[in-house]
Amino acid sequence: MKDMTLGQYFPGNSLLHRLDPRAKIIATVLYIATIFLAKNVYCFGAVLAVSVLLVLVSRISLRVVLRGIKPILFILAFTMIINMFFTQGETLLFSFWRISLYLEGIYRAILMTVRVVSLIVGTSVLLTYTTSPIVLTDAIESLLSPLKKIKIPVHDFAMMMTIALRFIPTLVDETDKIMNAQKARGADFNSGGLIKRAKALIPILVPLFVSSYSRAEELAVAMECRCYRGDVGRTKFVRLSYTVKDWLFLVGLLLFGAAIVLANIYLPIGFSV
Amino acid sequence: MSEFIRAEHLSFSYGKGEDAIPALYDISLSIEKGEYVAVLGHNGSGKSTLAKLLNMILVATGGKLWVDGKELTDPDFSEEDLFALRRKVGMVFQNPDNQLVAGVVEEDVAFGLENMGVPYEEMHKRVKEALRLVGMTEYAKHAPSRLSGGQKQRVAIAGVLAMMPACMILDESTAMLDPQGRQEVLDTVERLHRDNGITLLHITHYMDEAARAKRVLVIHDGRIWADGTPEEVFSRRDELREIGLDVPQETEVVEILRRAGLSLPLGCVGTDACADAIVRALTEKP
User: Chain A residues with CB inside 8 Å of B55's CB?
Assistant: First the structure.
């Protein structure tokens, strides 16, 4: 359970792992935009190919990536069916009672699936699987730092995130302890209906909340003792720096996005959505 | 040697007005630079309150207090003075989990330095050095949650150490550790005291830990009850018992043997010293 702090992160040393985290955040945004720009079959083919390429470059095992899709399989299947049967088109394949299936519907269902799958696969490989949350926090602070000029407390948010990440394993441990303590007193967390189970959680949440509160107070004192005073005259231990490979990667993605836009315009063949 | 901490008739109460709960009364003491002092007292005696006054987590309600020549109770004491003070007086707390801020050991050690605005190269040098001094170099990239209690506490010490303080206060920093962790922490801070001349203030309720210091200060009901070498303080065994404290186990053994008629000194402190004294007493006897 302690590994929760790492989230989805898989340590490694691939090209994607070594990219600057800020470049990866920007790349993810670019990539998402590109996916939504894609309109015809060729574009979707290219998007899918790039997603596969990203997975290969990240050296994350295919099993892990597929496991990431599992939770959305139901939604995926549902949208697929809806798209298949509720798209009106020209080529009627099959009609029964009030349900009719068009060729366009099948196209559309496949394309939507490709879109969602590459969205999930691409973003997780680009960001969550290959970037540790700690580095990600630094990157977010750095990317948002222009907002400090309009008095948005970027540093404070980043610090909150850092502390939250730091304390997840601590709180998980604590929850374990409290649950065991309650079980030792005869609490039952595993039977009864939904409401009964939810109610059984109250004796866990209350002590957890109380102890977190006193933890927070102690931590605040400890931080003050180490001269913490917010974002005043602070220097950073982690220094992020863009290198040639970050720029090349971003330019590559940008070109890919441009290619998709051009393909939308000049390659209208095939079915588009 | 020069004076580092000086208190004159220092007092402190929690709360204000009629609800005020006094915690310290009329504390006057002086601690030299480079001293190793243990502050002993049972729970609620005011020993932690005293520590918190020294780096101004709490502000004294009466009397005067100087740290390194600067008066803390001066009404003109500024925010800049406060940060200068906290750089000088580092504090390690009881719960190792509640004082580590960052998710990576080396980043946590750097936290104080980041706040002080130490330049990048210097910061990395100091973090490395601090981790080396507490023997945690190989854990620099680990997550604190994966360390043992003693290791976490050593990381916390490194975090304080990187700020290069003149004085380190351990506020019951060993209370939540297992015997091995306690040993690790004590060995680390005692080595720093010896080699780097850091003034060490160890607040504890373990008698055997207090016995390792050069000077023991006993706080009882908010007052200084005793102040002297461990030998002097622990020779008052019966009085200590009356206020709910004890003497180290080996001192207790020597005392019982002394009362049984062996010719042993009063207030023998330290396992080796006690063992030697007993051996001597037994071999001298015909």
Answer: 225
Note whether residue A152 is domain-resident: no
Whether chain A has a CB inside 8 Å of the CB on B279: the answer is: no
Q: What is the pTM of this model?
A: 0.82
In this predicted model, what pLDDT tens digit does every residue of B4-36 receive, in sequence order? 999 999 999 988 878 888 899 899 999 999 999
Residue at A33 is within a domain? yes
Q: Which domain holds residue A173?
A: 163-225
Q: Are residues A186 and A245 in the same domain?
A: no
Per-residue pLDDT reduced to its tens digit, A44-101: 888 999 999 999 988 888 888 888 888 888 889 998 888 888 877 777 777 777 777 8
Pick from B86, B97, B107: CB nearest A225: B86
Count: domains in chain B: 2
Specify the number of domains making up chain A.
2
The contact set of A with B (CB < 8 A) is 2, 5, 133-134, 162-163, 165-166, 169-170, 173, 215, 218-219, 221-229, 233-239
Burial label, A269 (beta-carbon count in 10 A; 0-12, 13-18, 19+): exposed
| Alpha-helix runs per DSSP H in chain A | 15-18, 21-37, 41-58, 62-69, 73-86, 103-123, 133-144, 154-184, 194-225, 244-266
> CA of A2 to nearest chain B CA: how many angstroms apart?
8
Judge if B272 and B170 occupy the same domain. no
Q: Is residue A149 part of a domain?
A: no
Average pLDDT over residues B177-206: 90
Chain B contacts of A238, Cβ < 8 Å? 107
B103/A166 Cβ within 8 A: yes
Nearest CA in chain A to B122: A237
Q: Quick check: helix, strand or coil at residue A124?
A: helix
Does residue A267 or residue A249 have the better pLDDT? A249
Chain A residues whose beta carbon lies within 8 Å of the beta carbon of residue B160:
226
A165 and B146 within 8 Å at the Cβ level: the answer is no
Angle CA B91–B95–B96, to nearest 5: 80
Residue A143 maps to a domain: no
Are A21 and A110 in the same domain?
A: yes
The vertex-A150 CA angle with A149 and A152, nearest 5°, equals: 100
Arithmetic mean of pLDDT, B234-249 = 89
The percentage of residues in chain A with a pLDDT greater than 90, rounded to a whole number, is: 23
* CB contact at 8 A, B115 and A227: yes
